[in-house]
Write a structure and sequence with these properties.
The chain is mainly beta. The chain is built from 2 helices and 8 strands; from the N terminus they run ββββααββββ. The chain has a 4-stranded mixed sheet, with no helix packed on it. The chain has a 4-stranded mixed sheet with strand order 4-3-2-5, with no helix packed on it.
Length: 171
């Protein structure tokens, strides 16, 4: 989780400079979260210290607590350069593609009922400074943006929307 948190730039509460939320040097497809684990991300902290209040079943996770983790072959083979991934013991190895498993499941399910698990959040940042934090997305995202994003500008030629974040109102 700490490794994934590098998708976000650190926010300096003493700065008034503009900053983009997402780190362009960390591909967002490498941002992993773990189903069933709840946690908070503090963007004012340096990498390695950002994940807080990590819990499983509403109980604090113990430092040596063990879990089984399901992942794809890309990640299991070291894709994304996640640290220590090669130290995990393989419980089950399959050549079946997730895509095919999901296709079969959808074909055989009459009604797909799901709930979005909001298992992680970025902590609000209370600061006397007015550091401006931006986030870029597709123009198609405009109807769906959360309340802490304020549309700042649109670039029709690049089909991009630039949002200003109200960091005091993260989830």
């Amino acid at each position: 989780l700490e490794f994934s948190a590098q998708t976000f730039h650190q926010i300096d509460i003493n700065s008034s400079e503009e900053i983009f939320l997402l780190n362009p040097l960390f591909p967002t497809f490498n941002f992993d979260c773990i189903f069933g684990i709840t946690y908070e991300i503090d963007l004012t902290k340096p990498l390695g210290n950002r994940i807080l209040n990590i819990q499983f079943n509403k109980r604090k996770i113990k430092p040596k607590q063990l879990f089984g983790v399901v992942t794809n072959n890309y990640r299991a083979a070291g894709g994304g350069n996640f640290p220590n991934i090669n130290k995990f013991k393989t419980i089950l190895d399959s050549t079946e593609l997730y895509r095919n498993i999901l296709i079969e499941k959808v074909k055989n399910t009459k009604v797909i009922d799901f709930t979005l698990e909001e298992n992680w959040k970025i902590l609000p940042i209370i600061t006397p400074n007015k550091q401006t934090v931006y986030f870029e997305s597709s123009l198609d995202s405009i109807p769906f943006h959360p309340p802490f994003l304020v549309l700042h500008s649109k670039d029709e030629s690049l089909k991009k929307a630039k949002y200003r974040l109200d960091v005091t109102k993260f989830w």
